[in-house]
Design brief:
This protein is an alpha/beta fold. The chain folds into 3 domains: 15-89, Orthogonal Bundle (Arc Repressor Mutant, subunit A), CATH 1.10.10; 123-382, 3-Layer(aba) Sandwich (Aspartate Aminotransferase, domain 2), CATH 3.40.640; 388-486, Aspartate Aminotransferase, domain 1 (Alpha-Beta Complex), CATH 3.90.1150.10. The chain contains 18 helices and 14 strands. The strands form 3 sheets. An 8-stranded mixed sheet has the order 3-10-9-8-7-4-5-6, with helices on both faces. Strands 11-12-14-13 form a 4-stranded antiparallel sheet. Strands 1-2 form a two-stranded antiparallel ribbon. Helix 6 (141-154) crosses helix 14 and helix 17 crosses helix 18 (471-486).
Length: 488
């Protein structure tokens, strides 16, 4: 790898120090990322017209400072410690105000985006929750590799034409429609399926296409912070309605004075509590929405792991007025092997989504879409869900039993919940004894739900992810957690 470095041979600063400083600057600026293999000293010396000893001295200087690390037989690499330091030095500043001709003028939406106070109530930003992703050891890595390899082997050049499919590869849309109809009872045609490259884009487009400034939007409290952020960026008036063991409290909607344009709910898996909306409330919400002509956005992103049999029908499957937009994601199943999300929209909205996708996302990864279609059609996805659901259900049961055994009446755990973590509520007596420090010492992940609340949080409420916990170690970790609490 050639490196273009300017060196001033007339400067009183020794050449090896100039070279060391130049490389250090590039690492700090992120131009040489962690793990980058630097050129061999002889090769770099030759390209810069220097002696090999000069380059050796520069490398040694950076190794001593921790910016480089030498691995015998492999070479000299940029260290990860240096990259961490480099990332800490990067600061994003808002563009300056005023009439400075040199400043780049940004739009009103750009300024709004910079001023937006992003919510922390997003599992994708929480390392203790594994960023909301499944544990790596349960990913179907070999099956997904086979699916990709098979698509590469089978496809002929004429299969990869340039005809745009703005809404996503049609075969994949067909398979997703069939999968959601089979597993969720959705009433949908392939034409209603709009595929997005990630999990958040579908919600972003819904907010962009359906909301005007000052529209009133109802969200769950506590609830997913990413939804509040998207609606806030559209200048919508966000009203938070409380959630209990049966989901969103629909009776509170009548008290909202302004006309409600949209309600965002996650009835099959409430984030963060895992609560499942009762059938009665689902029907009541649909009836209220039909009366008030309100749009319902039903987020089913983590509804594959529901431990109640049989699962309740989705709002979209009960909807007779075409008022529900259903969002789904493969994040909990396949990330980081694949990041694909989709929206099931009423037929009346398909032309609108087609136009916005034409403007913003004309292309998609053909091989990935074909491979995922095959992954679904051959039953591999269903088998993966069935296998992992058994594992997660067993781990969830072991964690629940261990917690009740250790804390008895001093904790509250919802009997029916979904997802890959438990929402646990501890008594005030336990809260005062430093729960988070006690859990950290026991190597038991524990995350407060405070960031998910719109306003004052519920004291003593925490999330414990169980997907990555080995069943054999759960009882031991919970016992150590309880012991640490007893010590105060």
């Amino acid at each position: 790898m050639p490196l273009a470095v300017f060196l001033d041979h007339k400067s009183p600063v020794p050449i090896f120090i100039q070279l060391s400083q130049a490389l250090k600057t590039r690492i700090q600026e992120g131009k040489l990322a962690a793990g980058t293999l630097l050129p061999p000293t002889r090769e770099l010396a030759e390209s810069l017209g220097l002696s090999r000893g000069t380059v050796l001295r520069a490398y040694d200087d950076l190794i001593a400072q921790g910016y480089l690390e030498a691995i015998t037989g492999s070479g000299t690499f940029v260290s990860r410690r240096a990259q961490t330091e480099a990332n800490a030095l990067i600061k994003v500043e808002p563009p300056p105000d005023g009439d400075d001709d040199c400043a780049i003028k940004i739009s009103e939406e750009g300024r709004k985006l910079l001023m937006l106070d992003f919510s922390d109530g997003i599992s994708g930003a929480m390392p203790l929750l594994n960023y909301g992703a499944p544990p790596c050891d349960l990913l179907p890595i070999s099956q997904w590799k086979d699916a990709l390899t098979e698509q590469i082997r089978l496809q002929q050049p004429h299969h990869f034409d340039s005809a745009p499919e703005n809404l996503g590869h049609y075969k994949l849309r067909t398979e997703i429609a069939a999968f959601l109809a089979r597993s969720r009872g959705l009433n949908c045609q392939p034409e209603q399926v709009v595929i997005f490259p990630g999990t958040q884009q579908s919600l972003m487009y819904v907010a962009r296409l359906l909301l005007d400034s000052d529209d009133t939007v109802v969200v769950e409290n506590p609830g997913y912070g990413g939804a509040r952020d998207d609606f806030g960026l559209r200048n919508a008036k966000v009203v938070a309605v409380d959630v209990d063991a049966d989901g969103l409290d629909v009776t509170r909607l009548a008290a909202i004075e302004a006309p409600v344009k949209l309600v965002y709910v996650s009835p099959s898996y409430h984030d963060p509590t895992g609560a499942i909306m009762s059938l009665e409330r689902r029907k009541a919400l649909l009836q209220w929405a039909a009366t008030t002509q309100t749009i319902i956005v039903e987020d089913g992103w983590d509804s594959d792991y529901v431990y109640v049999h049989p699962p309740l029908p989705c709002l979209q499957s009960l909807d007779t007025d075409g008022r529900v937009i259903y969002l789904y994601s493969f994040w909990k199943l396949l990330f980081p092997l694949l990041s694909v999300g989709c929206a099931i929209v009423p037929l009346s909205l398909v032309p609108l989504f087609d136009r916005v996708k034409l403007l913003n996302e004309r292309c998609f990864p053909v091989l990935e879409h074909r491979a995922l279609a095959d992954f679904i059609s051959t039953g591999k996805l269903d088998r993966h869900i069935k296998r992992t659901r058994k594992i997660y259900e067993s781990r969830r049961k072991a964690l629940t039993e261990s917690l009740f055994r250790a804390f008895k009446t001093k904790i509250e755990i919802q009997k029916q919940s979904a997802g890959l973590h438990l929402c646990v509520r501890f008594s005030a007596e336990l809260v005062q004894k430093g729960l988070e420090r006690a859990a950290e010492s026991a190597d038991l992940p524990l995350v407060s739900t405070a960031a998910y609340y719109f306003g004052a949080p519920r004291e003593g409420e925490f999330l414990i992810p169980f997907a990555e916990l080995q069943e054999a170690e759960i009882a031991q970790k919970v016992a150590a957690f309880a012991k640490n609490i007893s010590r105060g």
